[in-house]
Amino acid sequence: MVLSSSKADAQTTSCGTELDALARAISSATTFTNSNKDQQNLLHKVVQEARKKLDEGKTADAILKIRDIQLAVEKPVAVGKLGLADAAAIQGAAADAITCLTTPSA
Fold first, then answer.
1. Burial category of 49 from C-beta neighbours within 10 Å (exposed 0-12, middle 13-18, buried 19 and up)
2. Which of 5, 18, 57, 62 has the largest count of CB atoms under 10 Å?
3. What span, in angstroms and rounded, lies between the C-alpha atoms of 58 and 48?
4. In Å, how far are 1, 16, 40, 42, 81 from 34, measured between CA atoms?
């Protein structure tokens, strides 16, 4: 999905709540066994990388960064380094952010 600059700007603003919720879901996860690495890397992806892409008007690239977060959550879960409830919260918040970014604004 390619958005014009003004449309991308509108979605950046209107989806800020969802991106904030994703960052909160990551930062509030208490079951990361390697929080300095895994948790901080995920936070960097949403706070720095996804938001930067949105600021540049690159919504599709921001969505890819959020999908990277979804994939990155699977590995620590698989090896017992992240609890299922925390993973579900992160996955749900990521899905909400993607939905917001892919839903045309009125």
1. middle
2. 62
3. 14
4. 35, 27, 9, 12, 7
